[in-house]
Amino acid sequence: MVEFTFLALLLMVPVVYFVVTVGQIQGGSFAVVGAADQAAKVFVTQRDPVIARTAAERSVLVALKDHGYSPEQASIAIECDRGGCLSAGATVTVTVRLDVPLPLMPFGDSLRLNASRLSASASQVVGRYQ
Fold this sequence. Notes:
Elements: H1 2-44, H2 49-66, E1 74-80, E2 91-101, H3 108-111, E3 114-125
Antiparallel strand pairs: 1-2, 2-3
Helix pairs in contact: 1-2
């Protein structure tokens, strides 16, 4: 009985931790894909480039917050294939990067222990008629 309890504890704790970590990474991947897609869609619907960038960044923060990630863990890059990002036919690409921390780590924020760094990109074409 003692050997079974000891071995079960010794083997199950790493397996459970692995499953929780993989779940965190999967949740992070859903977060970056959704955030990049929504930010690209929001960007191309605006008329002013400054307002468009601000709105896209806000949509990324909302999408990441919905999945439980803070703004400090993410970065966003917006690129255009033309000089005028909001000119008709321009393609806007939004890239979101997210650092997924290791779960259940004491002092994990100060040590910056990450399970993974995720990245997703989404592109949208600015409509002809706005």
